[in-house]
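Attaching the record inline, Q. Sequence:
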Amino acid sequence: MDSLVLDIGGDIGALVIHTGPEHSETEIEISPGRDGTVLRSHNVVHARHGRHGTSYSAVFPSVPAGEYTIWRRDDTPQGSVTILGGQVTEHHWD
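Structure, as predicted:
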């Protein structure tokens, strides 16, 4: 079973973006707000092995609270999320 360490608490949360296997090893970017020119954070989708099988996700283990845009490879928004301090936010990639 895979394990992760999340660094959350206070004004820091975490983001897990669930995808299908077709996105394995794809880099996903997020940025605060809706401005596409703001510095982005990125992470890679990895296969995660658990007792219920294999899932695919990109995990952002330490994200300041606020609104974020999730970006597609062609620089169009895929979705948006609200990160809350001390919590894990989950998003499902269409």
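DSSP finds no helices and eight strands in the chain. The radius of gyration is 13 Å.

More tomorrow.
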